Amino acid sequence: MPEKxxxxxxxxxxxxxxxxxxxxxxxERFKEHSVESLDMIIEAADxxxxxxxxxxLTEMDNKPPYLENGKVKVHPKMGGxxxxxxxxxxxxxxxxxxxxxxxxxxxxxxxxxxxMGAANYSTIAYPFLTTGxxxxxxSFATKELQQIYIPKMFSGEWQGTxxxxxxxxxxxxxDIVSTAKPTDxxxxxxxxxxxxxxxxxHDACDNFxxxxxxxxxxAPAGTKGISLFIVPQQRPDKNGNLTFNDVNTAGxxxxxxxxxAPIAHLMMGExxxxxxWLVGEPHKGLSYMFQMMNEARVGVGCNAVSxxxxxxxxxxxxxxxxxxxRKITEKDPLKPQxxxxxxxxxxxxxxxxxxxxxxxxxxxxxxxxxxDNVATLTGEEKETNFLILELLTPIVKSxxxxxxxxxxxxxxxCFGGYGYTKEYMAELFFRETRIHTLHEGTTAIHGMDLLxxxxxxQNGKATILLMTRIMEDIEAAQKYEGLKAYAGALAEKIMKxxxxxxxxxxxxxxxxxxxxxxxxxxxxxxxxxLAIGWQWIKQGIKVEELKEAGTKAYSAEFLQSKLYALQxxxxxxxxxxxxxxxxxxxxxxxxxIAKAEEIL
Amino acid sequence: MPEKxxxxxxxxxxxxxxxxxxxxxxxERFKEHSVESLDMIIEAADxxxxxxxxxxLTEMDNKPPYLENGKVKVHPKMGGxxxxxxxxxxxxxxxxxxxxxxxxxxxxxxxxxxxMGAANYSTIAYPFLTTGxxxxxxSFATKELQQIYIPKMFSGEWQGTxxxxxxxxxxxxxDIVSTAKPTDxxxxxxxxxxxxxxxxxHDACDNFxxxxxxxxxxAPAGTKGISLFIVPQQRPDKNGNLTFNDVNTAGxxxxxxxxxAPIAHLMMGExxxxxxWLVGEPHKGLSYMFQMMNEARVGVGCNAVSxxxxxxxxxxxxxxxxxxxRKITEKDPLKPQxxxxxxxxxxxxxxxxxxxxxxxxxxxxxxxxxxDNVATLTGEEKETNFLILELLTPIVKSxxxxxxxxxxxxxxxCFGGYGYTKEYMAELFFRETRIHTLHEGTTAIHGMDLLxxxxxxQNGKATILLMTRIMEDIEAAQKYEGLKAYAGALAEKIMKxxxxxxxxxxxxxxxxxxxxxxxxxxxxxxxxxLAIGWQWIKQGIKVEELKEAGTKAYSAEFLQSKLYALQxxxxxxxxxxxxxxxxxxxxxxxxxIAKAEEIL
Lengths: 600, 600
Known about the structure:
The structure is a homodimer of 600-residue chains.
Chain A lengths: L7 H11 L2 H5 L9 H19 L3 H6 L3 E3 L2 E3 L4 H10 L18 H35 L2 H12 L3 E6 L15 E4 L5 E11 L8 E10 L10 E6 L1 E3 L5 E3 L2 E6 L10 E6 L6 E5 L5 H37 L22 H33 L2 H36 L11 H8 L9 H12 L2 H21 L3 H31 L1 H5 L2 H29 L7 H18 L2 H9 L5 H4 L7
Parallel strand pairs in A: 3-6, 4-6
Antiparallel strand pairs in A: 1-2, 4-5, 5-11, 5-12, 6-7, 7-12, 8-9, 10-11
């Protein structure tokens, strides 16, 4: 039996039934595509995952990147992979035709990322960082810059990166100190250091295109003085020849996992010869970044689900073959041992993972559908999708990231003592996924984004739009006996969430913003559980519809399995909201009141 | 500032105020000791931890053990350390004088283990496994065997191990297949393989004394046919000369963390020349093991707290020095950044860790106090302590083990992106602690032990005794304004726990044992949260008493910090019981009903 790290049936179920790509194919932007052609892309991603990415996962883990003579060395297969990612269109797939892309729906693009990430997370950092960086250039840079950089990036020859973080500016991007000095030759001279730059240097590409934040000399303090630049490691002249651009690799960070991709510490302009080209207007760098961040953040959430999916199928396979113990009612020690999946607690651990993985992946596609809608709809419909996406972004980034830690930990637990050893891959997935609550904004940052900005923006319009959508699905679910109670429970929780929000708003008024936001992380968790509950209701409706229609497209076990995972989510995860609500309504503000010196 | 990995003030607070060792010193067994002499042992453990164990932690992590020519090689300092552990009495401390021990209270012995484990968990596996193995020999083996083995074990020359697990018998010990064939020379010939044997072979000791479970030929099937043997790697003759005893090291397991100690795969009797000496009576091996398991399991819980403590102080120190961002109310980007401990969410993450670490450590000492009481009291008092210990054992083993995963993960989160890198030790602690929910019984096993055996034994006598103790403390807490509400909340939860238990008993009657035990893991978590809440109430009472008495022994910040952690626990952790109660009272039994083939 070949190793499984995602369910192709589930991807099909989500993309054909819950978020039908057939609908997207009707839009002008996607009219060259059909369900069949998009399915072929999914098949190609599967082949890439199985044949090229997964086979080198363990090797990559065992041999992390290293720095040799100022150059980062990565797995020897990575160079060939980057060519494939480029030539076969994985990097450019979602981009417009005019830039060499194929205008594939973002939802399908993300699905390929999910599959390849489940196979080998590190390998996809390279192409998809390039996609993100190229997208910034597409959206905000001059035609001239676009022509220089985008083709080389889409071909996989040049690596794109996001160069934001500095030693003193991580969560607080406002504190960036890298400088850019204008010259009269059309470029700027930048100086500064950037840390944690994923794929910031390696030997699998010929050049590196850093999308770098810096302050133009004399710029205003704070976020309003940050500009965005293209800073190549090697600068191309008019003939395409490359000259070293004074971008040095000071070091790489040794990490707990995610060993296949290097994270570099870069020094720009040590010799005062680092040329940089402004993207868009001065001082607007952060706003450009923010416009791209929704995609990047959905991507991080998706990566976290990928790894949890890999861990889930890994543990599911083990649970079906590993025998240990007998049924509680079986007292005869001479009877053979049973597969551990027969034990209720092991089923609990498996259903937990399935509920997290498939609930979260559904939410990822909810978000990418919004992205596709924003790109293809107009007027109020576009606005609605944009606002809902804004609201969902902190959730779709953070919930999978946080839960993937628990989900991979649970997978590891299914292996018993073996889970802690390198005999199996459970420990690898557990190490690998731990990065996702940290990069692209920590969970705390997203909690504050949700409660401090998104919930209240435009007088709560986004929240109202989202709740309306959820209530529609709740209503649709009411007619199915197996969903009724859970749909009702979700409706009740939605009311309670609104009460909590009102309570917090009153706290904001009486106690100020610090108290208001002090438990934003918990508020994010509460909101997230409801969002995933909603996704399970949506999936449940489709399962019931398919059953009613007597579908042959999915096995009875597949459909039943979905309903069990739905039940699991509502029986075991949804009750956690009660604990969060109790806390969020409490008037004790110990985390605000306690002074630093009183935490010992 | 020297690195801190535990709070000596907290150890003093627990051992002087909450679980007063002065009381223990009044007992006959401990009469040679005084608070001062026991404090000196704690000081010595601190010195050992700081000067000898912590300095090699990172080195050990970077260079895991390896197998060379059939022999396991460990860190070169380990040999000297084992001599020190032996010569300075760390191995034998708690043993009776007649065996060369010092009759130190188990509570103090465990405190030294806590400290040394926080410094470097792997290093203490060697001595404390030896202690546990020697204790089995003390309790059940013949005088002759005791004289041969115990002195060499206590001196640190010979390593003791627990050789239980086999490839097909992990959680299900009843399935052990190793055999023992009687001879007419007083020994048995054993044959079999044992896996996951911590410190099962290495070059820091001269010999290995495996306490091995095997079946005597013709023994009954199941747990009633398992016997316990001493199986040395080298067998000593009458003159103390060692002969190879046909115990081969087939391999070692490469692990995610806990790199300082090897876990071996051993082959006994491949050449039919593995001599083994029966401990106690035939077929009673498992019952002997169980009699020792309380100590071992308290030890595992304590080790999990150790690592969480190390991670907590590591992150606390970082939070005090790392600057990032400004107060939410501070809009001026030119104002300097503030230490991250000033942010409410960081304080939340620190108080979470503190509440877990200090609440769990308190529960560890609650359990060791029971052990000391069992060893020194008689009649009903002894019985009461024994029963409460039996009940607490699955909790004190599992709650710290489970929560240490979350606590070290939270420590890592405090470091932001740096937490994922090897620049700091957060990732090491996160990897290190993950073993504790697996060894000495997985969490599921302990859940079933609690709900399936302990809660109901002797018609629930242990539960009643424990609840009576808790209610006494709740009553004592009622007179303090700052504790009243929390004491009341705990009392209410105790009632709810009883309701849940009654509900489950009725489920057992109507639906049978499989449904009854299907959520035993959740029941364990529920019970555990109440147990830790109790420990916080106990600590709160002592804080209030000390404040009333105008203590100079503890700083005002120390006492305030305790109260904040107590508040945190009741505000953020205690509400989680509501979610568990909802689930435990549900009539949906999805984890029982779902068939293996319906989990896809």
